[in-house]
# Entry
Amino acid sequence: MNSSYIRCNPLKFSNYTSYSTRTGPCAISTGYLDGDSLLDIVVANKNDTIISIYYGFGNRTFESQKLYNTAYDVAVRHMNNDNKSDIILTYTDSNQIAVLIHQ
# Structure
């Protein structure tokens, strides 16, 4: 069998930095949450239904997690056309979702 293909270099990454989370991190999303144009990370933790927010410093490092007692899954999107990132949460125990609008 003769086939043509383009050879690709494998992905390469720089050294990584790890950050502590709560028990059972199960979902992750990113967005600009605090208005400083630096990317932030949101992690949902399934074992204690707490989300962790890591505010970015802009140099590929993040502040220690800030904890918010909420939900099971998380997404970050612009929900109301104000160019600010909002957080959408799911609650499995109550069959609900919540939209946290950035003020």
Notes: The mean pLDDT is 81. The chain has one domain: 25-100.
